[in-house]
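hey so i finally got around to running the thing on that chain from the lab meeting. sorry it took forever, my laptop kept dying and i had to restart like 3 times. anyway pasting the input first so we r on the same page abt which one it is
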Amino acid sequence: MNKIMITAEATSDYPQSLLTENITIFPMGYTVNGAAYDGLETKLTPKEFYDTCRKAKTKEDLPQTTMITAYQAEELFRPILEQGYDILHIGFAKALSGTYDQMCIAAKELAAQYPDRKITIIESAAAAFVQGLYVWYVDQKLQSGATYDELVAYAEDLKDHCGGYFTIDDMKHLYRTGRASKTQAFLGEALQIKPILYVNKNGKLIPVSKQISHKKAMKTMLEYFDKKMLPAEEQKLVGIVHADAYDDALLLEKTVKDKYGIQNTVIVDVGPVIGSHVGAGMVALVFLVKDKVEPNDKSIED
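ok and heres what got predicted. didnt touch it at all, straight out
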């Protein structure tokens, strides 16, 4: 029987503290202030990244990211296959990047080269630690003794229940990534509007609420947590995610523990790849949700 390796991209913001021998996270490159980093040998800590971003004076100084190509994906997968592993890849949301399609191209090519190995690419419909939480639960299932086919089936079922709600400090980043118009971004900055967003069942990051202060946005996000979470006893891990907003993360963690009695939490730094799109000050709650549908999400058809 072959061994099993769970893989995912750096977009999962998977923390070092949760890594096991069953998990490999693939690095992704980015450029900040004209300097290129490969995410492996050359990289910035989250603190260094956000400090550098704050100093950006022109559009060219703002961070940029690149997807993983099919060739790069083959080079990442190949050593794992050669070590005797079957691979289950939890991929970054297709709606947000072309990386998923590149992974599928690579997997098809490698399947022909390694007929005795299995490689499955699952589209997580997720980003940031929503994708990371997905990886964590799949790893827990693997550790329980699941076979490869059982693991694939479990991962497909889990897709609709790893969710997250985010608040972003600066709407200019939503404008840069096509989530808000230029006028919305300008008014958002002028009026200090703080949006609440969620990752829907199609993997899209959708605004579902707008608040007039950071404090109200935090409160509203907790209200979504209360409304959308599966029962507390099913929450084996809750992620409190932040982009250089550690004090806010601590406040959310305290509420999750004190109000809901959920003690297994992890505070997760948003890395440069996701941070390039959300900016400093983002805070999120990531957990098992009843569903990934909101009534005011017009992108989902009945």
